[in-house]
Design a protein that fits this description.
about 290 residues, globular, Nucleotidyltransferase, domain 5, 2 domains, 5-stranded mixed sheet, alpha/beta
C-alpha cells in the first residue's frame, strides 16, 4: 500500500461541501447526474465502506467534486467486512452507474478504516474494492481523512459512523492519537426500534425524518451520551479547545449539544457531515498520478 498524502488545500470547507452535495447523491433519488463531457485530468476516487452507508465519490485532479453516490447497506459491521460478496456486488453496481455519469472508466480508489481495526481486516476492505474492479493501494484512518476536508490545526475529530465512533486528537494539524469504539448510528436505530416496537428498517428511516426527530430525541439521547463518554475517556484530561463531530449520525439534531454537555468542551457539527470522510478519503487518492 502506498503512503497516503494529499497536495490539495481546501480553503473554504463550507463551500466545498455544498458543491459536493450537489453532485454526490443518494441512490434512492436516482443516483448521480451525468457530466456534460468526460474529465480529462487524472481522478481522485474514494470509497467509504461504512456500517450504514457505502459511498463512492470522484474528484478531478485538483480535488473538485465531479460525481458520486451513496446507498444504505449493511455489508460492514464495526469496520469489519461481514458480507464480502454483497459488498462487492453493491460496489460494482455503484461503479457502473458512476462510470456512466462520468463518461470514463474508474480504475482505482482509496478507502478508509476506523482506527484500531486489525490490519488484516483493513486489507479485507481493499480486497472488496479490488474485487469490484478498482486498484486500491491507499488506505487512511477515517478521522485523519475527515481532517483533510476540515483542515483543523488543534482539537478533536469524532467520526460517528454506523457502528463505531472514531476519535482523532490533533496538534498543529497532525494526528497524535486515535481510538475507536463500538457505538454509532446503528445503535440509534436499535434503541428506536426497541422503544417503539418497530423493525430496524422502519427505525432507520424514522430517525432520518426531520418531523420525527424531535420526539425521538429523548430515545436516542443515551446513545449520544455514550459517544460523549467515549470521547471523554480517551481525552484522559488532555486540554483541547473543541470537538468536531462528523459522520451521518451527527446530522441528528442535538448531537453536538449533548456531547458538549457531557464533556464540557465546545462541540460542533459541520454541515453535510455524511460527506466529510468520503471526500477526505478521495483527496488522499494519488494512484491516478503514478
Amino acid at each position: 500500500m502506498t503512503e497516503a498524502y494529499n497536495t490539495y488545500k481546501i480553503l473554504d470547507p463550507v463551500d466545498y461541501l455544498a458543491r459536493a452535495e450537489s453532485v454526490i447523491r443518494p441512490v434512492s433519488s436516482g443516483g448521480c447526474l451525468p457530466l456534460q463531457r468526460p474529465p480529462e485530468s487524472p481522478l481522485r476516487i474514494g470509497v467509504d465502506l461504512g456500517t450504514a452507508y457505502t459511498v463512492l465519490v470522484v474528484l478531478d485532479g485538483q480535488g473538485n467534486p465531479l460525481v458520486g453516490e451513496y446507498q444504505f447497506a449493511q455489508v460492514v459491521r464495526d469496520g469489519l467486512v461481514v458480507d464480502f460478496i454483497g459488498a462487492v456486488d453493491l460496489l460494482k453496481a455503484m461503479k457502473e452507474r458512476v462510470e456512466r455519469a462520468l463518461g470514463r472508466e474508474i480504475t482505482h480508489a482509496a478507502s478508509g478504516f476506523p482506527p484500531g481495526v486489525p490490519r488484516a481486516e483493513v486489507r479485507a476492505t481493499a480486497n472488496v474494492i479490488e474485487a469490484a474492479g478498482m486498484r486500491c493501494e491507499t488506505l487512511i484512518d477515517e478521522p485523519s481523512a475527515a481532517n483533510n476536508v476540515l483542515g483543523l490545526g488543534d482539537g478533536v475529530i469524532v467520526d460517528v459512523g454506523g457502528g463505531t465512533t472514531g476519535i482523532a486528537i490533533l496538534k498543529d494539524g497532525e494526528v497524535i492519537y486515535t481510538a475507536d469504539e463500538a457505538t454509532g448510528g446503528t445503535h440509534f436505530s436499535l434503541v428506536i426500534a426497541g422503544a417503539l416496537g418497530i423493525s430496524f428498517e422502519e427505525a432507520e428511516e424514522m430517525k432520518k425524518t426531520p418531523s420525527e426527530q424531535g420526539r425521538l430525541f429523548p430515545v436516542v439521547r443515551p446513545v449520544m451520551e455514550k459517544v460523549g463518554s467515549i470521547v471523554q475517556r480517551h481525552l484522559r484530561g488532555r486540554e483541547v479547545g473543541s470537538i468536531t463531530l462528523v459522520g451521518g449520525s451527527c446530522a441528528f439534531p442535538g448531537m453536538a449539544e449533548v456531547v458538549q454537555e457531557y464533556t464540557g468542551i465546545p462541540s460542533y457539527v459541520p454541515e453535510r457531515p455524511l460527506l466529510i470522510t468520503p471526500l477526505g478519503i478521495a483527496l488522499y487518492d494519488n494512484q491516478g498520478f503514478n
